[in-house]
Amino acid sequence: MQAGGGIITWALTSTNKPKDMTNRALGPYIWKNGEFLESSSVTIHACTHSLHYSGSVFEGIACYYGAIFKLKEHVQRLFSSASLVSLRLGFEVPEVVDAIKALVQMNSCKDGRFYIRPIVWCDGSDLSIRKRSEELAQIAIFTKEIRPLNPNAEVNLVLSSWTKASGASSPHQCKTSGNYLTSILAKRESEKFGGGEALLLDFTGKVAECGSANIFFLQKNGILLTPKTNCCLNGITRQTVLELAPKLGIDAQEKDIFLTDLNSVSEVFLTGTAIGILPVRSLFCPKDGLRLEFSRGPVASLLFEAYFKLVSSKHVT
Ligand code: PMP
């Protein structure tokens, strides 16, 4: 980002571009408050309320060769997140859906996989935590090319020392920036131990989710389990897997899961818009030095194939 006179632009220059974004460009246009603007011209002020006190809400939507997966569901979740943190939008769901479809055209998101990020925030700049209820929230949408889903990808998990707050402290069904502080800390910690993602327990010790993904466990008796949603986001990919599983003859259930249950597990995989269905190779627990290894098994592969077919279909929007 470039700074100047309190204004921060969203354009990425060649000198500050993170390594993994090389050749993965931000789309040329950003839709902001009803207008298509050149990405390099879109700015936010350094006094922006949501920048100081968190409270922005956002979505992560994937577009596969021009087909946007579950667009309406994502936009509805954006509006529900906004309502949970009292951000008042000046647009309706169909208008944001149409804006995303138009932006995908303008940014030529046809050849490859693209990530669509709508974000809603409070502009108030008087440095008070108070938000004026009459003030309309700001909304911007941008696109970025991302790597295609890789059927051979795997991840190593590290059990985090950070835990998810209770639902009474944090609205878990809200994709709000504040919820991501724990995710960022946990992910950073997992990297220190060579992991690619962090597994978080909830405040009572039950398995919750990963930093930015839901988690599934295949028990040795063939039942597929995923934590209930009282302490994790009810991810759209999670819901898709729960819909696909019975069609593939897999018994999938939502259940309270404890670390001791993992002894009777043969496969583990993560789900999320950006990662799709990602098998877990190992789980390392730094506290006791224990490492559990999991096999890359047929159930994750079966679900990956079915998911890939679904997201690649042209009729999913
Ligand atoms: N949990 C968290 C904390 C996440 O950030 C994400 C990614 N949005 C998910 C789960 C998976 O959600 P979805 O499948 O809707 O992308």
Structure description:
The chain has 317 residues and is α+β, with helices and mostly antiparallel strands. The chain is 23% helix and 31% strand. The chain contains 6 helices and 19 strands. The protein has helices at 49-53, 71-84, 93-106, 180-192, 236-247, 298-312; strands spanning 2-4, 7-9, 29-32, 35-38, 43-45, 57-58, 61-64, 67-68, 113-121, 138-146, 155-164, 197-202, 207-210, 214-219, 224-227, 252-255, 265-272, 276-285, 290-293. Strands 11, 12, 13, 14, 15, 16, 17, 18 and 19 form a 9-stranded mixed β-sheet that branches. Strands 3, 4, 6, 7, 8, 9 and 10 form a 7-stranded antiparallel β-sheet that branches. A 3-stranded antiparallel β-sheet has the order 1-2-5, with no helix packed on it. Strand 11 (155-164), helix 4 (180-192) and strand 12 (197-202) form a beta-alpha-beta unit. The longest helix has 15 residues, at 298-312. It is globular, with a radius of gyration of 20 Å. The chain starts with a strand and ends in a 5-residue tail after the last helix. Mean pLDDT is 92; it is low at 12-23. Bound molecules: 4'-deoxy-4'-aminopyridoxal-5'-phosphate (PMP). 4'-deoxy-4'-aminopyridoxal-5'-phosphate binds next to helix 5 and strand 17.
